[in-house]
Amino acid sequence: MDNLIRKGWRKINDRIGKVKKKLYSLLQMLKKTTPVELYTDEEIVNSYSCKVIGKDGVKIVFGNWEEIEKLYLKNNLKNYHLKNDRRNSEYLCWI
Asked: Which of 69, 78, 81, 83 is surrounded by the most beta carbons within 10 Å?
């Protein structure tokens, strides 16, 4: 009886090990993103692929760091605040 239980646990542990390896390889293949929020009261001429909320007054811009950086540099923003809560994240960024 104990021998059967040990064999069963070995099979379960082998399957868990295979699932862990598969999951790890899938996570390595995902594109890493850094979601960022930019707050500004300045005019934004080109928003690239970022989502801009607000027209007059304060604007909130959502996007990946690469796009936010382009937006920041091309629009020559002076008065702004950047916020991000994670870096190189595997989470999908819904914009």
From this structure: 69
